Structures are given as C-alpha cells and as structure tokens.
Amino acid sequence: MNIAFVRRAGIVCLGLGLFTVVFLMVPTRRVVATPVGNLEACINPGNGMMRLVDASVACHANETRVEWDITGPQGPTGPQGPTGSSSGGPPFVWVCTPANYDLASGGNNSEIDIFNGSSTTANVAAHFLAKDGTNLAGSVIPGNSPAVYPGQTGSTTVTLAPQNTMIVPYLTGAGTRATNNSLLATVSVVSDQPIVVGYNIPFGALQATPCSLLPK
User: Fold this and answer.
1) For a tag on the chain, would you pick the N or C end, based on fewer CB atoms within 10 A?
2) What separation in angstroms does the CA of 194 have from each of 16, 66, 161?
3) What is the model's pTM?
4) Are β-strands 158-160 and 122-129 bridged in parallel, bridged antiparallel, or unpaired?
5) CA torsion angle for 101, 105, 188, 179 (degrees, to 10)?
C-alpha cells in the first residue's frame, strides 16, 4: 500500500476526529424563550452542582437544564384569623361608662365630646342608655325636670365636619342606676368615620375621661 496514501488517510481521519470532539464540546442553546416568572438552572449530574442561568445562556454538554416557576401553585385557604378591634373599619363604636354617678341629687353639667379625625364628614349618633339598654333620648332626667336627655335614637345620625368637635351637654341625674331604668348609665357613640370620644362628669373636680373603643 502506498505510504503517502496511508499518511493522508490518517491525517483526514484525525481531522474528522478532532472536528467531532470540538462539535460535541460546543454548548447547546435553547431556542424557546423562558416564560416570564420562571427560573432556569444547569445541573451537573456527576457532582450535583447547580448554577442559575438566564434563558439566553446555554448549559454545558455535561449539564442538564431544568426550570421551575417562581410562584408556586395556590395553597389551601388558611384558617380564619382572630377578630380585631373596631379600628379596622366602620362602624366605629365608642363607649363612655359610667356616664352618671349614683347621686342623691343631680344637676351637674356634664358633656360628651366627639372629635372627627377623618378627612370627610362623619355621620355620628350618641345613644344615652339606661342599664337595661333603654335609649333615654328625650326622656326627663331624674331630679332635673323638665330637662331631658339629648342624643339620637334608632338609625338617626347627625353630621360632624372633618377636624371638628361636637360637644353634647347633659345634666347628671339623681338616683341609683342599678335600680332606676330612667337614669343614664352609659353613652354609646357610633360613627362611620374615625373619631375620638371623651366625656366629663364634674363631681367635686373635673373628671375628664377618654371613652373606650369597643372591640368588634
């Protein structure tokens, strides 16, 4: 056999072999774009190493490409959480109690103060209640006839402008609240906007007191 031919054939085979090796070492590229919200990675099954890559970056020949969603599937609905206070939204309910002392005689000038802290007009109602929940608005104040209790009944409300204070004066009544359902025990103030409520019952000295926001 011709030695020169053998040499040429060997050179050609060697060249084809090198071309094959180089071709196999060229990284593969994905043509399909990664959907928005997905992560992609290249994993080497030999050593378990993983590297995050962009959609445009190809994995090496000895790596496997994987992808997964950034946002997983919707989980089951969780249990109902504890109820919060009425500060979470309307109606806002404030309670002023005791709104009257047990007195042998009444006639002290008292008041409920309602401040609208919101940026819109509030619709408020002050309910003057006996110990059994009877609404006393318009009823004669014991020991102070013909003076009557102020306030609203039912769903009636009055408006209060933003940053304004509504002052609702009333007289303390005579008697014992536990045995007299015509005597004021508690004032409940309801509003559809955030408010702050306080009250004052003079008894020897000023007794200005903040009312309590009723939990829902």
Assistant:
1) N
2) 84, 53, 12
3) 0.60
4) antiparallel
5) 80
